[in-house]
Design goal:
globular, 106 residues, alpha+beta, 61% helix, single chain, Arc Repressor Mutant, subunit A, 6 helices, 3-stranded antiparallel β-sheet
C-alpha cells in the first residue's frame, strides 16, 4: 500500500525542475512566467512551460490568464499545492542532516 502512495507522489513530482518551481512559488506565492524564467535561468522556456502544465494538470499549480495585451499569465499554488510545503521543508532538513553526517559532523 505505501509503495503505491510513493509511486503516486513521485509521478506528480518527477522532473528535474518541478520541486525548484514549487520552492519559488512557496516563497513568492504568485509569479509570472517571466519571473520564473529569471528565477531559474538554467531552464528552457519549453521545459518551464511543460513542467508548469504538468503541475497544473496534477492540481498543484493554478494558472491565471489576465485578458490584456500582451497576455499576463500568473502561477500560484493551489490549496493542495500549499500542503506540500511542510513535506518539502522536511526533505530539506533531512538533506542537511545527511550532508552533516557525510561531512563527519563538521
Amino acid at each position: 500500500m505505501a509503495a503505491d502512495g510513493v509511486e503516486e507522489v513521485l509521478a506528480v513530482l518527477e522532473g528535474r525542475w518541478k520541486i525548484l518551481i514549487l520552492f519559488h512559488l512557496f516563497s513568492r506565492s504568485v509569479l509570472r512566467f517571466s519571473e520564473l524564467e529569471k528565477a531559474i535561468p538554467a531552464i528552457s522556456q519549453k521545459m518551464l512551460a511543460q513542467q508548469l502544465r504538468d503541475l497544473e494538470r496534477d492540481g498543484i499549480v493554478q494558472r491565471t490568464v489576465h485578458p490584456q495585451v500582451p497576455p499576463k499569465v500568473e502561477y500560484a499554488l493551489t490549496d493542495i499545492g500549499q500542503k506540500l510545503c511542510p513535506a518539502l521543508d522536511a526533505l530539506l532538513e533531512w538533506a542537511a542532516l545527511r550532508k552533516s553526517s557525510l561531512d563527519g559532523g563538521r
